[in-house]
Sequence to fold (345 residues):
Amino acid sequence: MSTSTDHSRTDLPSDPGSPGSRMYAGIDVSKAKLDLARSGSGSGSDAVETFANDAAGVGRVVEVLAALGPALSVVVVESTGGLERPLVEALLDAGLPVALVQPGRVRYFAKGLGILAKTDRIDALVLRRFGELAAPRLLERRSKNQAELRDLVACRRQLVQTRAQQYNRRSSTFSKAALRSIDAVVGALDRQVESLDRQIRRLLEADDDFKHLDGLLRGVPGVGPALSATIAAELRELGRVDRQRACALAGVAPFNDDSGAVKGKRSIRGGRTALRCVLYMAALSAMRSNPVIRAFAARLKAGGKAGKVVVTACMRKLLTLINAMLRDGLTWDQLDVVKKLATNG
Fold:
């Protein structure tokens, strides 16, 4: 007698039902269309409605979901490189609960359900199921200035990365003509980065909330304009969440890797990569210029910790202190740990 396992299922496990009358929706976004799977569609649990991905189609999706009223718990949308932004903004404008999730999380979720096939229809159904079982975090409505700041910071980051690539190419290029072309590209990138820095600075100074936040952050030794602007754009939850959540959002929280009697090495993962990269450079600066972080790093090194472990711990320490500052509305000098260090010094 032989047994076999079906690895090609395309259906979702049967929905056991949601508590009370809660409803969920998942929307798969592509360039041409929107596929909507929602609870209580009246055409079976696997019914998917398709709309054009244009202003009229987005408006129709909003109408359909708004009609569900308070029973709608969450609308799950997958991040698709910007194609989802008009839809997400329209849903937020309508006051609907929206969660924007990373494609990797949803794909792992689908595999966990035994779903290996991938189509737009299946993706919409998986997103709806993800909303039911994973309780994704809801988005908050961003102000116009915050959306503008996030785009400026992202553009600057991309240009800086491109400039670094050109510098790396230059070190291995020997043709004079090629070197002139690389230098011209680097010069253009330098000018664009400087222009973006000025625009970011003007935006931070023109918005009262940003200006106050920037003032607090720039008062921390080791925190420069890049980290300040990145936190303002990418981590507005800072100061409103506990330190564990703040570290997880920034991707510097250590996760266990244990099984039975085996105790694996803890490592960081996930989080917002762009923020973590900027925080890394800030931590290196803080290890030299920030007395609290410098003393913390020295203790870790004296305890035999590896170099990368020390830097990661300093990233986490710096973010934790900033989170405490913003939570309590304190300046750097008003933190207890800074006062104690000054007294002991």
Q: What stands out?
A: Residues 18 and 133 are 10 Å apart (CA to CA). The chain has a mean pLDDT of 88. The chain is about 55% helix and 10% strand.
